């Protein structure tokens, strides 16, 4: 096989833990099964969670918990989002297993590990396949195919065969059964000859199995003996797998009059019994020939049971007992007896010596089932035994607990009603549809009535004791049409879905279900309950029997199968250490397999199972990769590569590579230091052009003469075969030689060359191309996030990059950003359950910008946001903290979690990580392709003679005032905005004079130098009057009139901060957009003499502080002294110099609005915290400050700067705050860093790719 093959076990090696493995084939990662058990081992989850973002496909073997149990948690909580492949029965029965497993816990405790919504998310990702169906992988899995093969054991059970380009194969086969059973055929593993790699289990090694005849006789005799002695039989089974074999067997035994079982009841009991049987009826084609014959010959579905009754609750079981007064045999789940009806019945029945408990499968060590199996197999089987168990119960609420519940429920209902009304008021307007259109629609609906019995969609909710069924189903709603009335029937509005959802399980069983004695959902109403638990010692008097119905291949048969299949390599998993080693020794000795071809991995081991012995892994430099000329061959692309193998060299970080952030203490910098990592994988770099050897053109392909004939005829030539030779136009003959080459004979004429061209088209031709080794030179002016992103993108394209930074340290304003970076539809949002998309993000950005934004740029920004977050995450930026800022509809602002209890400044950390990543890449190629010049300011741009192309710039050293010139193929301006421009040619003075007296959060470098340089060569400016005044800049008590102020991060208000005026009253919605809040402060608040501007007060309590992050808050409070702590509202009022009653009233009204008792006067709907007047409150003074300039250079979607006439300035690009159009009249919080990351990368990419004189749109 032409790919690297690696294998790692996340669970299920050297013990009895559930199987879950990662198989890497090339760059494609398969997860093989994803099992869990009722121990809910979170160590396994941690291992799986690290792999989740890299998994490309999940392959499921069986539908039981041991093979799919962890999927709801990984999909719902850990962001596993790849396709999941399973056969149709595994898809159907897997749902039943998970629903029943969830309910078995939820019946007796408040189960929080995963939800039914998580279960449904899993099966939304499942792609259903059939046996022997070839499925091709996409993307990184190009050339890979998977084929599901029958495995026996359970319905739909699968052995997975994985092939690469149709060559050698990998076979994953665990828990299979080669023997035929009543309802299933055996597997066909012995038909797979010489797989390159076989992954199989050692679970049954060392276990002797009874023949099926003796096993069935043992079961029957045990049942008859127990029933005739007046006892009941509990058979512990799974939900929808092996139970089908058992219930089929027992139903046939009951039908045999000679067995004498008709006097007794046979009951199949679990929460989804009805649906399990219904699905089994519909999947007969997946079963044995015997089942098919029963169905085809007698037209009798083998799962239309004649004697087995279905039961879904203990209450139903009690009614059956009262109705028939007979002893009974109950098949109940769960198999490990750690939860479910089987556990409840065991606790009830084990104290009666007449009863019998039959265990049919092994369970994890430590489970109740494993303890009972040990007791059943011990020599002292007769007599009483004691066992200690934890008992959980759900009991009704009574007395004051019931009263409290009802009060709370009533309050919740009131709040929910209020929220619904609020959402209704805010709902977007509905298009008005004319009565004529409605009439025409009615005609169409009538004509479609025969095709769809339910033509409308509305939400349908079922009620009943099994309230959990109602979850996880959502229906689309049609808009309400005004001025139109019509009598409708609610029943007509239910649309039936083909997917199985929880609501499907609440089908009306009034018909066929009542024949089985099942109660209808409407008989019982939901009752308030609470969960209790206690430890109880139980005396076991009942008879215990273990009769193996697991349906797995025994060790002797497995050895025979291995002898026939003769795998080249084998990985042994899912077995105890002793069993695994025994099977490994057998493979080495009896199969003569080499020591290094038999793998017995442990947790954490990485198995390298690559077949080829002369395969090496190399990395290609971006410069080399960009120089290659690929040609298509069938479904792949190939290129001829000439390169020089090099090894990485990493040097210690030098002093000039370090960066510091403004207003961040040294201790924070030390804690957030990043080491330059080393990579031992060699790489292939460009060869000098003088050393590149020449080669003849290479023709790749093997066209058939028949295909060539069709191609020639399509081009208008006459082509016929004569004695195996293709004759074309009677002037040329083509034959195929023994070595596969085409031999052409004929007259050299016009037709000859035309025919030759047609022949050439049948091949992929790789010519000898000389590679230009001199890289393009890109200058990036500015070293904030936009500049660094541009430099990294240009470097990745193979360019030589020079960064100019006018300050001593890199980072600019980006290093001071604290709110976070926005992103929609990211993995962090999915893990946190946040529903977001580019359309909603686009709407929020346009709304914040008052609709004057450049829509193309906003569309590109929002759709590229997830990729930008991913790029930062891949290089080591942890953006797993998620908050909501003002103006956003959902949580989409990503931040960095606190480290060791201390805040991590998001802007500073991103800038430093990108910078370090760039330095590492430069060090790894060992060249001078990156140069960083600090304290060097760009002064002006240099153009060619006619001023059409930018070819360089003039610069000045900040310290020495020495000047110089630099020339480049392209220049990227990332110089920031003009928020602190008080120079002689001030842009603030020219375009936003009313804002010039505001203090600012920007450094002295924010003077619009990039805008001014580009303006001088004819660049167009846009939105220059749009200057964002941030509503909350801290007033420093020691320097209240300082012109530069520290920003009060938006996340403070997002965490629940209140804003009060000088009278102690609220005056705005604290979560409103920035321009709205600034306007409210300017219109509602008083001017402070010491500040010289309007000011307001910001309040936080301890709960808000914790939401924001106490370490970060203490930086503002204790280090900067912006906040003052007051012990209660009286001290607060004294500090504000207002009456305490006024502040008290303000806080009370806010609490009432938060509780839903009243509408908030400012329209606030999200209330992160409520203030207690008797507890500490922190207060700071804030004032509006200039924070950002939305205006700047006009750019296109390639970040190329435009002229006044709309044409592009060749060689000049811009990104970040220096450009305009993205934000419109007002920037949405969190979009500044995103703009830098997105458009910086775009600018660097096109600056490195577009030739001088060309335009980005020409590509």
Automatic annotation (TrEMBL):
GO terms for cellular component: mRNA cleavage and polyadenylation specificity factor complex. InterPro entries: Beta_Casp, CPSF2, Cpsf2_C, CPSF2_MBL, FAD-dep_OxRdtase_2_FAD-bd, FAD/NAD-bd_sf, Flavocytochrome_c, Metallo-B-lactamas. Keywords: FAD, Flavoprotein, mRNA processing, Nucleus, Oxidoreductase, RNA-binding. CDD domains: CPSF2-like_MBL-fold (cd16293). Its cofactor is FAD. GO terms for molecular function: FMN binding; fumarate reductase (NADH) activity; RNA binding. It catalyses: succinate + NAD(+) = fumarate + NADH + H(+). It comes from the Eukaryota. This is Cleavage and polyadenylation specificity factor subunit 2. It comes from Trichinella nativa. The lineage of its organism: Eukaryota, Metazoa, Ecdysozoa, Nematoda, Enoplea.
